[in-house]
Amino acid sequence: MTTRSNFKHLVYNARKNVEKVSQSADPTLWRERAPSWMRRDYWETLCNIWATERWQQTSTIMKVNRAANPEAYMHTGGSVSFATHQSRLESYS
Fold this sequence. Notes:
This protein is mainly alpha-helical. The protein has helices at residues 3-22, 40-51, 53-68, 82-92.
């Protein structure tokens, strides 16, 4: 796991935890509950981003897309190379 993906998971978990603790899906109510490992001004900025209408719409669209075809998001390539996958897909055409 890279540092970038690790941080992404940390922020995701912090967001889910504060949503659970505050018992609210409204990011404007989360501002006062910054994680101890994050600067408060960074957390407030994230909460402001999460509260925007554009973010909310995008989040809803992505949630629907993921639910529509759950098999598409499984990482099952295994040891098969991308070149092999590509040639197999081309042979189906």
